[in-house]
Amino acid sequence: MYFTSTRSPRNVTSAQAIARGLAEDGGLFIPSEFPKISGELIDRMIDMDYKARAREVLALYLTDFSADEIARGVEAAYTGTFDSENPAPIVEVAPGLNVLELWHGPTCAFKDMALQLLPHLLTISARKAAPGRTMVILTATSGDTGKAALDGFADVPGTKIIVFYPQNGVSAMQKLQMVTQQGGNVAVCAIEGNFDDAQNGVKKIFADREMKEYLNAHNMEFSSANSINFGRLVPQIVYYVSAYCDLIRQGKLRKGEAFNVAVPTGNFGNILAAVYAREMGIPIARLICASNRNNILTDFIRTGVYDRNRPFYTTTSPSMDILISSNLERMLSLLYGGDTSAVAGLMEELARNGRYSISDAAREKLQSEFFGGFCDDAGTAATIGEIYRKYHYLCDPHTAVALNVYKQYRRETGDATPCVLASTASPFKFAAAVLPAIQPGELPADEFGMVAKLSEVTGVPVPKPLAGLKDLPVLHKGCVSKEGMKLFIRNFLQ
Fold first, then answer.
1. How far is CA 302 from each of CA 13, 23, 218, 369, 417, rounded to the nearest angstrom?
2. Which residues are bridge partners to 306 per DSSP?
3. Distance between CA atoms of 311 and 81, rounded to whole angstroms?
4. Domains of the chain from N-terminus onward
């Protein structure tokens, strides 16, 4: 199995792709072909636990890793780190609606599913592709990736990790999780701007010649924990394959029977993992792409035009407050049949004009596979309350966005195909938005008061990782301009 760039032909191994994070031409690494999951393998995986399924799926992509290397990484990632031995349980909220809970890890967000494994994949990759070099993990976050990456990489030998987050673009709980992070190899800094500013800054620093020379002189190399890194994407494919196996085992699907997938997404990585699972043979029918008020993906799916020249909104679902969906580039490669020059041209147009239009053939293919919808903050709050009252199921704002858009999809199409809906965060990470949706009225004065009240009202216990934050000291207080990110990195590395 080799990997190539979305923007130009090249062949690298999986270890090289994971160690580098981003291709030298600025493109994203993609598999040169999709391995297929046979019916025989599905039969075997139905009775496997999550770790065994992960080993099978990872082995199909990471062909330059030994079986032992994969097994050790999986075992370390998913043993004792989640609140049960099944890190991705399915809850049937309503007939045909199966919520895939991806937030039972140490940071209470779906990013744990990949970022508990990525440090192991990356250190193995570095030994193969960049022996003896320190990997500098450079990450921008809209809230959840940052803490999950910090937790995964803290004090991992041979690595340093630097996380930038938008100063006013994450929830109070998300911020507290990051600024209290311990570890001798970690740095956390706010930026004056939004997530797109942080993400663009990180991409520019990756390509900065002066920074490359500095790293090379000090035997260091940049890599990424964002979903631009294929090492982040491949563990996410696993949970869609596993969900299919679980539904068969639970008698909710017959083998080969199609199901839909609904995903709240901003950067497009989580839903792209479902696309890749489908390319491998998992019978996913329609992909329901749910956005908040920053509905650039909805407009793209409906019109074929991607236009980031629009207002940016701060919402109650901050992890989706994004106007530059990096992983969409990988989807463009699929839509254009792997035509690297076409994808490179679209990316150049985006950089130059802030927009691009895809061909009629690509748009028709996109619309045949995807449904795009969005939900504003009022709709999000209404959905949180409705789902709790009707089904006694407590969800966070991002999951509520997906539930709202799924309802739109059912109403517009009448399609009753069973659905797997990705639930991406614990509701207690966003208590300031969830509590008033459940019980309107005066709110407690601080975030931890809201968390305690939400637990009291619903009878749902507060996750241990969040309950323990209250007494931790704030260790990271920096805030820089977009232009100051490079200097912050240099100072930390020195």
1. 36, 30, 48, 12, 21
2. 356
3. 39
4. 90-107+231-430 (3.40.50.1100)
Q: H or E stretch including 349? A: helix 340-353
**CA 196 to each of CA 140, 201, 319, 321: distance values in angstroms, whole numbers, following the listed order:** 9, 8, 11, 9
Query: Do 91 and 393 contact (CB within 8 A), yes or no?
Result: yes
Q: Is 442 exposed, middle or buried (0-12, 13-18, 19+ CB in 10 A)?
A: exposed
On whether the CB atoms of residues 469 and 177 are closer than 8 A, the answer is: yes
Of the candidates 376, 434, 431, the one whose C-alpha atom is nearest the C-alpha of residue 404 is 376
Strand partners, 121: none
Q: Which residues pair with 222 in a beta bridge?
A: 136
Structure tokens at 372: 């795009």
Question: What distance in Å separates the CA atoms of residue 6 and residue 329, rounded to the nearest whole number?
Answer: 7
User: Which residues, 6+ apart, have CB-to-CB distance to 138 below 8 Å?
Assistant: 162, 202, 205, 206, 222, 223, 224, 489
Please give the pLDDT value at position 226.
Answer: 84
Model pTM greater than 0.90?
yes
Model confidence pLDDT, tens digit, residues 101-149? 999 999 999 999 999 999 999 999 999 998 999 999 999 998 888 999 9
Question: What are the tens digits of pLDDT across the range 284-341?
Answer: 999 999 999 999 999 999 999 999 999 999 999 999 999 999 999 999 999 999 999 9
CA distance readout (Å), 310 to 202, 317, 355: 22, 18, 10
d(CA 204, CA 209): 10
